[in-house]
Amino acid sequence: MTDAAPFDLVLTGDLVLSDRVLPGGWVAVRGETIAAIGEGLPPPAKAFADHRGRLVMPGLVDGHMHTSSSTGWPGIEGATMSAAAGGVTTVCDMPYDVPDPVTTATIFKDKVEHVGRLSHVDMALYATIRKTGGGDDIPALAEAGASAFKVSTYEYDAHRFPRIDHPTMLAAFAEIAATGLMVAVHNEDQELVVKLTEAAKAAGNTSPIWHCRTRPPITETMADLEIFEMALETGAHVHIAHSSLARGFELAKLYRGQGAKTSGEACIQYLCMTEEDIVRLQGFGKCNPPFRSAAEVERMWGAVAEEIVSYVSTDHAPWPKPKKEYKGDIFAVGAGLTGMQSFAPLMYTLLVERGQSPTVMARLCSEEPARFHGLDPKKGGIRLGADADFCVLQPGDHSFDERIIQDREDARWSPYHGRTMKAKVVSTWLRGAEIFDGTAVKAKPGTGRFVPRQHRRSALDS
Q: Per the structure, how many domains does the chain have?
């Protein structure tokens, strides 16, 4: 084609939108954005990407992941390589970084600078508050472009990942409400978890299953009730960062009915993993909250069907392998799973296994996380004017192999190693450029950009 062709790029394939699939569709790109969408004969363009027989999805938006919670900001480079290889084009990165959490606008802007040098995909950033006296920084963090705030009812680390006490949290929620941003909460009751863990250790119960036993469902629901009461009191949009229980979403719906802005997300592991899996995986299956029963997994899918799950995320946390090795004490193992590169194939697989449409994936793994983080309409969908971000899936069975994970060597492990997947990512596009070709990541560090929150509207107001 000549330079006079109207479009720079046209991709063909079965386009997956959030409400329908367009078989034999096409999407045309001009510059970095989507300029036209259609079916049938594609228009002329300077370049074509023929994906007929494949699914062209919107690039996934992971609304909850950690690049820097174990290795600091250098971890941005490897984690976002994994994202590119997994069809994830935008990540919303948690603020609990090593050595210091993102609690001030100065730290936030420094992290933005590192994103611009290191990231392979686009990044939105969470902010957080100090354990005491952090409320004054909230307006500046919002102004700097934070997509959301994150706090915790459970203390993982007194400096980096602290428990915020009730008076401080209540005051912070009121301040965050004034910004219009969402505040996500790690929802586990500190006192219950600590006492149950102490009792288990005293009795010598340190095998993997005791991670689940010391964090029973009530530890989540107690925390949910606390934060939702504060949502009702302050008007803040309060969001469960990861509910392993269908009841969490039911409580969010209940409080919405009373006038609160309350919501919650499911991490993908809670849609497929059970307590038996931590026995099998040992330390490599430890995450907070823990895996639940097979019956609870079914209830979670019921919540998905009821459309009370806001979105699905990974909570990707690429701990170095030595930190995940079980050596007789499950409580000494780092909590968190890798999940970025397996995100798209696994979500598609779970939907196929349940006879559901890939449109569910487009909605819960792209459109809704972008909306909740205020990244729409720029991110999250195949729509006119949006960034030309795509995840292309080739249907067909294959076994997921952790050795192909695109990250530093000690992060190449996966709780899904050996699982049969129903599709693989064969191409990822970011703003109209291919960044993964099915084998290698083509993007260079710095290809990705910081994406500030585009507006201050709550997803629950729109």
A: 2
